[in-house]
Amino acid sequence: MPPRPLPQLEQINAEIFTLTYGSIVRQLIADFEDLDEVNKQLDQMGYNIGVRLVDEFLAKSKMGRCSSFREAAEVVGRQAFPMFLNVAANVTNWNTDGTECSLILADNPLADFVELPEEYKGELRYSGLLCGVIRGALEMVNMDVDARFVQDMLRGDEVYEIRLRLKEHRAEAFPFKDDD
Amino acid sequence: MLGAGARPNRHAVNIVERPIPKTRAEVSTVAFSAYAYLFSELISYAMDRAASITELEERLDKVGYEVGTRMMELLSYREKTVRRKPEVLDVLKFIHSTAWPFLFGKPANDLQQANAADDEYMISDHDLLVGRYISVPRSYATFVPGSIVAGIVRGMLDAAGFPAHRGGGGGGGGAPQKSTTILVKFEAAVMARQAALENARRG
After folding, report:
1. Looking at domain B31-202, does it have CATH number 3.30.1380.20?
2. Average pLDDT over residues B187-201
3. Which of B7, B32, B41 shows the shortest C-beta gap to A10?
4. Which of A55, B153, B168, B202 sits at 20 to 30 Å (Cα–Cα) from A105?
5. Assigned architecture for domain A14-169
6. E-state strands within A60-159
7. Which of B7, B41, B67 sits opposite A45 (nearest CB)?
């Protein structure tokens, strides 16, 4: 499907975005001593954002329904990421089933000025919010996915890689039964 | 497309040696709605943890403070002539006319000295960008989304050497008047230093 020209959303300075996110992560770390909890909170916040973000995305991009997970992943990487974060994500590493793929990001505005201290490098998923956003957004279009960071530049890898795994593609369930 | 000669791995270099975009034009942007979502999640989270409206505002203020200190450093680095700002009015004008457009795309609407005290100043913005999609329910009537911006201002002042705190309320205004006013109250040491400067200039 040829990519449609992306609508240009109103822009805001990326640095205030980066710094605000960093400040939020810092607050979370101060509130919950346990990094695992912080990861969960970030994922939850991302999920909440995702369920609303998908509405805006569909409205602004005027996309039709995606027929498959493969198509959905392409849309996330090629249209949604550039639309909201002005970065492109490549979709690669499909498994044979077509149920798992990787989103590769060379650039991540959430983590621009960030350096993780040693004690956090192991556990903290700094950009975990993004995984939550993807999960929330796709759940609203009936695809249950599991999104995890497998490569993270903040821990020394070359790129950011999110592994997306489709758990279930639910059929569109009409909320009302006809015979009620 | 990721090629062999793609963007160099920024994180491979020590963080303080990484290049920062030097001019305004090079700074990248993100969609405003991305920021709006992030901000609204922050408010949700803070609302959950806070026991009162004051605590909620304090949490936002703290988040803004961290942003402000770093923002000040970034902005000072980008200025054409790097000069310290010794005077209270200088730093306030910087915030009003340089920082605000950088953060929000337009200069702040108003900078005034409060009548009551000479260590209080007010910066007003008639349409605060970050608060645009935040609606405040009646039960939180005194809550001001601008608290985060007040924190940013406080952080910037602190980083510039002018410790201050919020005096009084942030003032959201009623329905027709949507402006946000940030009240800045400088600490006594700052005012003493200001007075000494003025004396030195006069004498």
Report:
1. yes
2. 84
3. B32
4. A55
5. 2-Layer Sandwich (3.30)
6. 89-92, 100-105, 143-151
7. B41
